[in-house]
Fold each of these.
Amino acid sequence: MKNTKRAKLEAAGWAVGSVKEFLGLSDADAVLINMKLGLSRSLRDRRKKCGLSQVQLAEQLQSSQSRVAKMEAGDPSVSMDLLVSSLLLLGATSADLAKAIRGGEKGKGRHAA
Amino acid sequence: MKNTKRAKLEAAGWAVGSVKEFLGLSDADAVLINMKLGLSRSLRDRRKKCGLSQVQLAEQLQSSQSRVAKMEAGDPSVSMDLLVSSLLLLGATSADLAKAIRGGEKGKGRHAA
DNA sequence: TGACACTATGTCTGATATGACATAGTATTC
DNA sequence: GAATACTATGTCATATCAGACATAGTGTCA
């Protein structure tokens, strides 16, 4: 994956799902980014639902507030592994993750919700 | 994630799903490993279905045969990102990935106890 | 206003994953 | 057996990611 492309997307202020290949972004890249964004959103939701601050979550994860922020921001520097293991630590199940991944996709043929 | 634990598991010849916490393996770690194994299997299946050798797939991925082998072997040194983007390049959809992830899980939902 | 809690962003250093290469194992065919 | 194609495993240099820290932005409340 080329993180630089994603950075460009974000710099441009785009919600990735809506662009597809507005840049040189390959389909696979776009889908991967959408999956990550789905996980990001899921993480934030779950954290809030648990009534935790980023600092508190960071403690649970044995990480730092800045990393949590980046995770939730969909920063290119965070891996899927980190997102997933964080979600798991928050009690997400495989089914939850599967849903988050599919929720991250923007509809391949149509953009129907 | 602690890759060392997984290495130990594999060294012991275990299919991860069957052990849960036979080692100091946390629940979250176990689930993550199972998800990766699900993706590994899915990758091998998809490659074979496409009639590709590891070398050929490696070319498509702009990677190397050894890395493909490790991916399919569930080697601890391969990330979820790599597995997922490889699968996407082979034409898998988000839905396919979601299924592979859930397929990788062994038991009931981990949460309720 | 100031103080406070929360979140965002940039950067550093150490850890880990990556592709590449070598090499060994496994069939299969001649 | 030799030769071929495919796959597995180990190692290495480099690229990327991790946690940590500083610091800036945001919102709330007294």
Note: Residues 25-104 of chain A form a domain with the 434 Repressor (Amino-terminal Domain) fold (CATH 1.10.260.40).
Amino acid sequence: MAYRIALVDDDRNILTSVSMVLESEGFQVTTYRDGVDALRGLTAEPPDLAVLDIKMPRMDGIELLQRLREKSGMPVIFLTSKDDEVDELLGLRMGADDYIKKPFSQRLLIERVRSIFRRIEAQKASAASPGTASATSLARGELVLDPAQHLCLWKNAPVNLTVTEFLIIQALAQRPGHVKSRDQLIDAAYGEHIYVDDRTIDSHIKRLRKKFREVDKDFSHIETLYGVGYKYNETNAAA
Amino acid sequence: MAYRIALVDDDRNILTSVSMVLESEGFQVTTYRDGVDALRGLTAEPPDLAVLDIKMPRMDGIELLQRLREKSGMPVIFLTSKDDEVDELLGLRMGADDYIKKPFSQRLLIERVRSIFRRIEAQKASAASPGTASATSLARGELVLDPAQHLCLWKNAPVNLTVTEFLIIQALAQRPGHVKSRDQLIDAAYGEHIYVDDRTIDSHIKRLRKKFREVDKDFSHIETLYGVGYKYNETNAAA
DNA sequence: CCGCATTATGGCAAAAATACCGCAAAGGTA
DNA sequence: TACCTTTGCGGTATTTTTGCCATAATGCGG
């Protein structure tokens, strides 16, 4: 279930480059080249997040946001070129969730976008009634993972995981019995444009094992494959 | 299996310092001092990644990339000195994978480089195992080998192999009944540019036979061809 | 059966990979 | 602001793997 992001900018180059980046991260991107078009599109089919340039012909980003806010509370990130535009944003504080100064790195952009969606997930989690399995949830034998609720159950007992831990166990449980290299797990947990050390994965695996053991002393479903990576087994490791 | 990186910059200091950093991370680095040389070198022997300075005499990085793109899709990272160069990149974005502003920290550079290679590995992995049965998995009679799961079964019993052992049995099982010389097995297990002693293969064969015998006392499918090498037989050796 | 060449195998120390402690930085919250 | 949680990573202990040696065993040609 890919998030949908609307991108509004009058610079076609930025439009294509940014949307490429976002799409490479698995988001579904719709682009608009000016505020008027965008207002129509965004109203007709609201995305999960809007990324707006401030300076645009016909209708600038700020006016666009004000119009949007009449109808919708969708998250918004602004793109700004100048510091005084930032000031303006801060002064007005009219409901933007974040802003990014041009020029910006892919990494920064993705960081901001992901943080927005993390926040949304968190809200969903607290809002959702427990017991309702959402569409994206995962039930692998005794393990239940529901990203929407940020819920992890082991043999029906809740396991309290942090965001990173959740992403890692999710990646592992996606394919029980299959090895994931540390690099693959880094991609799954952080996205492709962020580097963390291999050993950091070890730490998270350690914490995961510990938390599962707190619920089930004999938990040993996360297996180390020496020289390869880790894998999640549905059946407990015997030998 | 070291990744090969080409580094192109007219500043000799940067050339040496950066290549030292990369080499210390285990990468194999080739350097070029201008775009014309680089184009020739990169075309003749394409590396796994190119790191290009933008501002260079004779041919700048942007032109170099365009020329490269005519032939190759190798990943590219740009080095830039000025913000307006960044703008240009963001706008044009003609196939560069990332950019780094000078001056940059060693850590940042490594971060970017590793992220590129993670992506490559990820693609390899997903290409290798799209469904449940990975394309490269092998079922030869009673022997089952699945690299994606790092799984080895003999008569449905799991055999716990190390990476090297796995690579060797894989090479042997690829063509049952066909001899592989020790040199061929070394290539298969270590890559072509690493030297280990012939007798080392004997050791691995020893360990393989032992591990298989632990599961099946009468296992004798790995046959020695005196003076030639080893081969894997589907039917047990009748001798 | 003999002598030479090749292989099998147990053992071992070095190397490689991993587990995990503890801390400090980062981020969020009240 | 101060406080709490999360997180990444340095560093060390531990485990696993691995290459190779020395010796015994086996194969091969005569």
Note: The domain at 4-128 of chain B is CATH 3.40.50.2300 (Rossmann fold).
